[in-house]
UniProtKB/TrEMBL annotation:
Membrane topology: Multi-pass membrane protein
Identification of the protein by name: O-antigen ligase family protein
InterPro entries, sorted: O-antigen_ligase-rel_domated (IPR007016), WaaL-like (IPR051533)
Record keyword Membrane present: yes
Compartments, as annotated in UniProt: Membrane
Chief localisation class: membrane
MF terms (GO), sorted A to Z: ligase activity
Transmembrane segments: 41-58, 63-79, 91-108, 115-141, 161-180, 187-205, 211-229, 236-259, 320-340, 347-366, 404-423
Pfam families linked to this entry: Wzy_C (PF04932)
Claim: Transcription regulation is one of the keywords in the record: no
Gene Ontology terms: cellular component: membrane
Key words, A-Z: Ligase, Membrane, Transmembrane, Transmembrane helix
Organism: Ectopseudomonas oleovorans (Pseudomonas oleovorans)
Occurrences of domain O-antigen ligase-related (ranges): 195-327
Length: 456
């Protein structure tokens, strides 16, 4: 259990649970999945800023100077952007995620807190799987005589966003299976059922980036330690059983009943128009190579595909500038190399393998998808970074100049995001409807589900 004086940790875990459950239902009229999860994210980040400003529970280290330098470059870019208000919102969002990672690195040091996070993931993943298979059963009860996998999933406005969450969920499920199988075999079996169900859903939704990210991340485990073979074996068994379940439910049964079936081919070729986005991002880089066009400002130029480049490095380079993008790339590389060295020499457990798979898989998926754009995925990526810092680093509670700079950053984040929550979020449906009537263009998610930020 938690040690005494752990009230902030319990409060943070409850806040994480509240955020995670934003994928279960949309109780507020006019707010879709994306907008609801964005509001939940902003509330969580505001709470995090409260931890930083008042409780001062966050870690520090030499790497934090690099993070602060990148944020400083982003701040300068935002002030020079065409729409500085929107640019500052994106800057505040990214800065808030940094503070959340530093706070979690302090609060999640107890291993019991880390397993509590895994339990939150199981609850959410189990609920989403249950909704999916209830929808499958409803197709039989309703008599519509067709199966469309895209209408069966819930919790996200796009199946790709579900896949982004799964790349963090699946390794946590494996870690929990291994953790519980001796003392709590019944619970381990239940978690395994959820894992198999998630694999079946992944095949049904046809997420190519998800499958690629998980394959590469699990393969990299073997280069770290042979002890991770057990972790990989559990994941492989679940993947194979999930494939069998998918074949039974979405191939054999519809053919036998003569039903119409709608699925995406996981092995389908092509870039799905991503090349259009990447070329546009490159054009923005050539236009403003040093400071970029401004945070979130890829969304200021309307295109027929998406409001973000679907590529992490191109997004940072085009919006924040090449120096900031290079800093992000070097920081990520340093972090993963440091993690690999730690995993090679220290005593490891299933949670370590899960964190490695989630981080590597997330970075791979971010090269072809909006992992660093969608609110639900942003938070889970940040949670994994925070837990990795808690387990693998020697970070200590902050002090001196770093503490003051982080607190100042937290104050700026609270002001900017607090204004969004108070002044804009309550009226979001009306604002978006007016935008659609004025500009007659479709929704492409970025900050909100209507992600374009064209000047009025």
């Amino acid at each position: 259990m938690f040690a005494s004086g752990s009230r902030p940790a319990w409060l943070m875990l409850l806040a994480l649970l509240g955020f995670a459950l934003s994928s279960w239902a949309t109780p507020f009229q006019g707010y879709g999945w994306h907008d609801q999860q964005r509001v939940a994210q902003l509330l969580l980040l505001l709470l995090t800023c409260g931890f930083a400003l008042f409780a001062r529970v966050f870690v520090a280290g030499r790497f934090v100077w690099s993070v602060l330098a990148i944020l400083a470059l982003g701040g300068v870019s935002a002030l020079h952007a065409e729409l500085p208000v929107w640019a500052m919102r994106e800057w505040a969002l990214q800065a808030g995620l940094v503070i959340l990672a530093l706070v979690l690195a302090q609060l999640l040091k107890p291993e019991s807190a880390q397993w509590a996070v895994a339990c939150i993931a199981v609850v959410v993943g189990g609920g989403l799987a249950l909704q999916f298979f209830v929808g499958y059963a409803a197709a039989f009860i309703s008599g519509i005589r067709m199966l469309d996998a895209f209408t069966l999933f819930s919790g996200f406005s796009n199946p790709r966003f579900f896949g982004q969450f799964q790349i963090f969920l699946m390794p946590l499920l494996v870690a929990l299976v291994l953790h519980c199988q001796v003392k709590h075999p019944g619970l381990a079996g239940l978690v395994m059922v959820v894992l198999v169900g998630q694999w079946c859903i992944a095949y049904a939704l046809g997420g190519r980036g998800l499958i690629l990210g998980l394959l590469v991340a699990h393969a990299s485990l073997l280069f770290l330690r042979i002890e991770f073979l057990r972790f990989i074996s559990v994941q492989l068994v679940a993947a194979l059983i999930g494939l069998l379940l998918f074949w039974l439910l979405f191939c054999l049964v519809p053919i036998w009943l003569g039903w119409e079936l709608t699925l995406r081919d996981t092995l389908r070729p092509g870039l799905s128009a991503r090349e259009v986005l990447w070329l546009e991002a490159l054009e923005l880089i050539t236009r403003q190579p040093w400071l970029g066009v401004g945070p979130m400002h890829f969304s200021a130029s309307i295109n027929p595909v998406a409001a973000h480049p679907h590529q992490m490095l191109l997004q940072w380079a085009s919006e924040w500038g090449m120096p900031a993008a290079l800093g992000v790339m070097m920081l990520a590389a340093w972090g993963m190399l440091s993690a690999a060295r730690w995993l090679r020499r220290e005593c490891v457990a299933g949670m370590d393998a899960a964190l490695w798979v989630g981080l590597v898989g997330g970075l791979i998926l971010a090269q072809v998808d909006g992992v660093f754009v969608m609110p639900y995925t942003q938070i889970w990526m940040t949670v994994f970074v925070g837990m990795a810092l808690a387990r693998w680093s020697l970070c200590q509670p902050s002090s001196g100049m770093q503490r003051h700079l982080i607190m100042l950053t937290g104050l700026l984040v609270a002001v900017v995001l607090g204004d969004v929550v108070i002044a804009e979020a309550p009226h979001l449906p009306e604002i978006q409807q007016r935008f659609i009537e004025l500009h007659a263009i479709g929704n492409r998610p970025r900050f909100w589900s209507q992600g374009w930020i064209v000047a009025p």
